[in-house]
Amino acid sequence: METYKLVMPEHLNHYGYLFGGNLLKWVDEYAYIAAIRDYPGHHFVTIAMDDVVFKCPIKQGTILRFDIARIHQGTTSLRYHIDVYRDNIDNGTEAQVFHTTVTFVNVDDDGHKHPLRQP
């Protein structure tokens, strides 16, 4: 799955760059959307975000591209790898600014792990 986000003033930290917590929120949200689209009717919760690596500061006005791909399916869990790129709208190039892996587990109404059904 691929999606985009425009970095606005309300997303910045006190130094004038993207607040990392906002990026983590978007990554979690977009990975969840990919998971629920792949497995409709499931109830996923995030249990891990591995190797969180911020490669460079991101300025206001930057367009971010999120590339989300499922990399593993277990009995009750899914893993998605997320790469985030910033677009350079002046010359049409892009550069990777972030990557991580998000793990979700499927839970029942009581919050216990529940096996995945085939999509």
Features of this protein?
single chain, about 15% helix, alpha+beta, about 120 residues
Give the mean pLDDT.
95
Question: Over all CA atoms, what is the radius of gyration?
Answer: 16 Å
Proportion of helical residues: 10-25%
Strand content: 35-45%
- CATH top level class name: Alpha Beta
Secondary structure: number of strands: 5
Return residue spans where pLDDT drops below 50 for at least 5 consecutive residues. none
CATH architecture: Roll
For the record, give the distance between the C-alpha atoms at the N and C termini, rounded to a whole number.
16 Å
Q: Using the alpha-carbon principal axes, give the shape.
A: elongated
Structural class: alpha+beta
Largest sheet: 5 strands, antiparallel
Q: Report the CATH topology name.
A: Thiol Ester Dehydrase, Chain A
Going across the major beta sheet, what is the strand order? Answer: 1-3-4-5-2
Question: Can you characterise this structure?
Answer:
The chain is α+β, with helices and mostly antiparallel strands and 119 residues long. The protein has a single domain (2-106), classed as Thiol Ester Dehydrase, Chain A, CATH 3.10.129. Helices cover 16% and strands 45% of the residues. It has one helix and five strands; from the N terminus they run βαββββ. It has one helix spanning 20-38; strands at 2-6, 44-54, 63-73, 77-88, 93-106. It has a five-stranded antiparallel β-sheet with strand order 1-3-4-5-2, covered by helices on one side. β4 and β5 (93-106) form a beta hairpin. The protein is elongated, with a radius of gyration of 16 Å.
